[in-house]
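@channel sequence for tomorrow's demo:
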Amino acid sequence: MQNTRLNTLFDRLGKQFVQWSENPWRRLSLIIISLLFGNFLASAIATTTGQRTDLDALVSLVTLTIVESISWLTYGTSFGRRQIEEPNAILGKRPLWIALLNSLKLGLVYGLFLEAFKLGS
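structure tokens (generated this afternoon):
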């Protein structure tokens, strides 16, 4: 690609974000925000599909596929297996985007369990 001003701007922004997210507290805050967004997403999915009952099977299939894909990406790849053995895998060496996706998945599954308990009571 050509080295245009727009490319250099995005390269600098990317490098600044990587430097910003290397701080453990900022990384933890991004992971917590991702977890809470997954919980919100689960609530939104449950209320949206509750209004239209014909979408239940399709949305559950798509949600299951997304959750299993994220699990495979996090735990099934070579860097995922290597990170499980390390004690600080969540805050330390795992790439940020993998940790954010995994946190989003955990929030989504937890939120769906909460919605199921609300409907069951």
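heads up for whoever presents: Residues 24-120 form one domain.
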